[in-house]
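Form 7-S
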Amino acid sequence: MKAFVVDKYKKKAALRLADMPEPSLGADDILVQVHAASVNPLDGKIRDGAFKLFLPYRTPFILGHDVAGTVVEVGNNVRRFKVGDAVYARPRDHRIGTFAEFIAIRESDVALKPNNLNMAEAASIPLVGLTAWQALVEVGNVKPGQKVFIQAGSGGVGTIAIQLAKHLGAFVATTVSTGNVEMVKKLGADLVIDYKTRDFEKVLSGYDLVLNSQDTKTLDKSLNVLKPGGKAISISGPPDPAFAKKLGMNPFFKLVMRLLSRGIRKKAKRLGSSYAFLFMRAQGQQLSEITSLIESGAIRPVIDRVFPFEKTGDALAYVETGRARGKVVITIESHTK
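Output:
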């Protein structure tokens, strides 16, 4: 099968289009013919080697963390899916590889595709949808009437997180550039701050939760807008001791994680708030919950551009400019006809 692979960890390295063997199918796996895959900043970070100390891949490996497609084979233990089902997923770590014609995915990581989305739209959802769900529902426990600050509201995570937070009954503030103000208002944002003209730290106060996706300096400022008891959840770091424990890291890496996040954790404690690092995980049941919200109209995908499969490298380069509004998707035309 055709696939885009990483030959070696290197910053901004080009992906190579290669002939790779079709995936082998385990008893708990389903084999999916890929119709569409979306591109995430995480793909570039994996290629660059940013996470190779705790999330190593043996090169060459196939990149890609989001997929929508059709089930073409199921393992002996699979009960929830059958051949011909339209599905979508964020495959678990160490099982990625959606920039390919086929991928084998653990059954528990998969959900049926929303009926009201096409394949490209569906492929845009899993990683960002699960990130928003795990931040706001699982960790943040957002309740009606709470105030939530979502940074970078026009990005992939931001566009979904705004809609989910509104569905949960929160008052939502976000930051965007001037050209994206109206877009995020249409998604439901109550207070929109143009970061080119205003400093969110001087505008916001008394927030229950901040979802940080920016640098450490922005995270530090974000703690100042929280009320006592508030939570800062970051998807861009720094990692914390709880993350190291969850991954079962050795004592050295646990110490490293503790040191990396010590300053932020100490400041949060001093302010009476808390800090948590979120590295989202594959979860098919949560994705099914998101499916219900999409089919009810509570959440809709936001897609900036769609690239053909052979332009996957260009799609990744565009994502890395940081200018995408919503998601960037690649499609395999031979599979979608």
